[in-house]
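Thread: sanity check for a docking pose with LYK5OOP5

Original post by kr_44:
Hi all, I'm comparing my docking run against an independent structure prediction. Below are the sequence and the ligand SMILES. Could someone generate the full complex and paste the structure tokens? I mainly care about where the ligand ends up relative to the chain.
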Amino acid sequence: MSSPTEKKTDVPARHRGPVQLRRGLAEGTTADQHLLDTRSPADFTSTDPWRVLRIQAEFVEGFGALADVGPAVSVFGSARTKPGSAYYETGVEVGRLLAEAGFAVITGGGPGSMDAANKGAVEGKGLSVGLGIELPFEQGMNQWVDLGVNFRYFFARKTMFVKYAQGFIVLPGGYGTLDELFEAMVLVQTHKVTSFPIVLIGTAFWGPLVAWLKDTLVADGLVSPKDLDIISVVDTAEEAVSKVVGAIRSGEPGTDSSGTEPGTTAP
Ligand SMILES: C/C(=C\CNc1ncnc2c1ncn2[C@@H]1O[C@H](COP(=O)(O)O)[C@@H](O)[C@H]1O)CO
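Reply from moderator J.T.:
Ran it for you. Here is the predicted complex with LYK5OOP5 included:
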């Protein structure tokens, strides 16, 4: 009797593209049969190889749609921010000031702070971009998006936020906002992107998070003290836009060159 590790050359193999299958896995239908069998097309479109093509298509379509956006800043913040609230008005101001400074405004295209920043971009006569995401519940693009691209996959969409923007402005938000913020922070920390200012608005909101980064992550040696400089925190739309635009124009990373600590308003 041969050992399980002994090479078996007598077992026939079936090839499916670059994949080789033996024994029970070799049984079944051929690729041609699958292709020509129209009984269950829905099964086919939910297979992983088909998904890869859809993912690829999202990147191709996204790159194509956004290629001519020009200088841009991505703005993040809660989908639940209410029109008329202070955060909403700050979002409108951010969008307007960015547009007036010649920057396209890229958001997630949804409600709340995204709606606010897109509205500001339109008011400032700039390019208002929304990168929508397909969600289990119906959620259209907000009315202020002039160039909209809809994504099925969060990760493809997140690539676009970074690839087509030169900086981020982040309003208060929940998990989605934190996800987008921390992804950008990691990209800067690991030098995957350079010269990428990230400015958070709202010292009262972000202060406790920044304190935790410092008192726990830095204190425990999980990030270095200089990693705190990846973000800066301000209180107004004017400060945020001036900081991001200034850093982009000077080619500096998003560090606070004034020497003030993250979590404090720049002088
Ligand atoms: C939950 C609600 C709406 C969901 N619609 C969204 N549309 C587009 N983009 C969204 C949506 N929800 C989250 N995002 C992305 O995450 C960030 C906001 O998430 P948060 O958890 O609300 O902070 C935002 O920047 C988007 O990119 C309400 O009806």
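The chain has a mean pLDDT of 85. Hope that helps with the comparison, let us know if your pose agrees.
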